Amino acid sequence: MPEFTMPSLGADMDEGTLSQWLVRPGDRVSRGDVVAVVETSKSAIEVECFQTGTVDSLLVPEGTTVPVGTPLALIEEGDREKPADGRPGQRAPSPPAVPEHPPVPPRGTTTREDGFVTPLIRRLAGERRVDLGELHGSGAGGRITRADIIRAAGTAAKPVSSDGRTKASPLARKLAAESGIDIAKVPGSGRNGTVRAADVREATQTPSEPPSAQTRSLPSAQEPALPAVGRSRKETDRTGTARLMARSKREIPHFYLSTTIDMGTALDWMRDRNTALPLSERLIPAALMLKAVACAAEEVPELNGHWIDDAFVPARQVRLGVAVALRQGGLVVPALGEAERRSLPEVMSSLKDLVSRARRGRLRASETADPSITITSLGDQGVECVFGVIYPPQVALVGLGRVIERPAAVNGLLGVRPTLTATLSLDHRAANGATGARFLNCLDRLLQRPEEL
Amino acid sequence: MNHDQARRFVQEAVQHVVPGADFTGLAPEANLRDTFEMDSLDFLGFVEALARLSGQELTENDYPSLVTWEGCARLLESREHVAHGGRSR
């Protein structure tokens, strides 16, 4: 029977904590359904399953930390659709050296969560006779959460165990204690109303009352960061990153290229376009740059992939790792899939969505899985250029500086132009200077024709 | 909208993208993006929030005025006066 295993959610992850199951034995699951929440040293990540079938058994209880590759559940495969990836039945041995490419869910599902309902929510709604169609989801992207169902069902009754204590899972108690919440006041969604970790998280995130209309206050889009499991997520994150970066510099013979790109045309084009559009549809230069980098990676596939067992393995598609700084410190690098094929507005909305969910600890597993090339942009911190450290096992990292007005030769005259310094850190085992030059020249060319991006 | 109201909108809009942003003792001419470490995506979110709160349209041409707390507040206030003067924007 196919196993659902602890996925690798980034090159620096060795183990993860299964913090919450979103399904139970007997539930029907479809490929792409979010079935569990895993805490890594960096953040909480929603993990999808890659099979369609019925959950047979859960092998690992909530709150357990296990190494990558450990079987977490057994899923009996149904016949609803043919498994499309070659995984079924295949046992995951030790943590795979090459993180597998999880199939990218059909376009739309990665970024738009409208109407997205997990099997558990479906079931909970059934149990409490709540019509999902009539619910307005308060979760990310309008997703229906447990709290919505509970609110709709008007369940307020709290089960109390015989000793007078509120029934709650150990992780829920711990989270409640850490965030200073009275567990007795949290609505429970577990069996018999037991308070589970997710309930506490929702309680810390959901404002207790809807904002009153007359004050015109905005519902906060940025929920407070999830309370870390354990105290030192930031510390463990640093160690994870430290290990990975040290390994990169130890193993990868880095070399660096740099070029200056005239951004005048691209920025003028963007400004003209933005003038005609409402704020919510406006682009920022970063969206143009991401798309251009993705297109360049497609044109120069020699840099888009991984160095595995002394050989370069090109990636099947471009998965752009975007380094996102978290407000509480630390860095996550979610991947933007197929940016080269999406329109600029799509790239822009994916970027907004990805960054805001990365900062709220609400990334999906498929979004953290092995980027094929990474971008770091320190432009907003005002520096001209950045030479980054490659994320193993990738072979290239693109560094984008700040767009600065500089004197430049334009048609034989001296002019002042907005310019961008783009750099490329390369693994010399996988690439030579000429390949890198081709990549940067391609990037330059693409940014001179923004209307074609 | 008076000046204080305008300043409150700016504060709320910043706090919308940077939860917990502390305005106590902030100089009116301090650069908001630098002070609260807003990247370009944050800044766009800030402008969106400010437009929604104030009910005013904000274009990219306004961005240079949206650097400081005071600058933002002055812009919102002046817009309001124009609107009340009956001229179309």
What distance lies between the first and last C-alpha atoms of chain A, to the nearest angstrom? Answer: 45 Å
Question: Quick one: CATH superfamily of the largest domain in chain A?
Answer: Chloramphenicol acetyltransferase-like domain
Mean pLDDT of chain A: 77
Mean of the pLDDT scores of chain B?
86
What percentage of amino acids of chain B are in beta strands?
A: under 5%
Strand proportion of chain A, as a percent range, falls in 15-25%
Number of helices of chain B: 4
> CATH superfamily of chain B, please?
ACP-like
CATH class designation of chain B: Mainly Alpha
So what's the overall shape of chain A? globular
Number of domains of chain B: 1
- Terminal-residue CA separation of chain B: 17 Å
- Indicate the percent of residues in helices of chain A: 25-40%
Identify the CATH architecture of the largest domain in chain A: 2-Layer Sandwich
Write a structural description.
The complex is a heterodimer of chains A (453) and B (89). Chain A has 10 helices and 20 strands. With 453 residues, chain A is of the alpha+beta class. In chain A, strands 9, 12, 15, 17, 18, 19 and 20 form a 7-stranded mixed beta sheet that branches. In chain A, helix 3 packs parallel to helix 4 (197-205) and helix 7 crosses helix 8 (344-360). Chain B has a single domain (3-84), classed as Non-ribosomal Peptide Synthetase Peptidyl Carrier Protein, Chain A, CATH 1.10.1200.10. Chain B is 56% helix and 0% strand. Chain B contains 4 helices and no strands. Chain B has helices spanning 3-17, 32-35, 40-54, 69-84. In chain B, helix 1 crosses helix 3 and helix 1 (3-17) crosses helix 4 (69-84). The longest helix of chain B is centred in the last third of the chain and has 16 residues, at 69-84. Chain B starts with a helix and ends in a 5-residue tail after the last helix. The mean pLDDT of chain B is 86. Classes of the chains: A alpha+beta (453), B mainly alpha (89). Chain A binds chain B through residues 216-218, 220-224, 271, 274-275, 279-280, 282, 284-286, 325, 327, 351-352, 355, 379-380, and chain B through 12-13, 15-19, 33, 37-41, 44-45, 47-49, 51-53, 58-61.
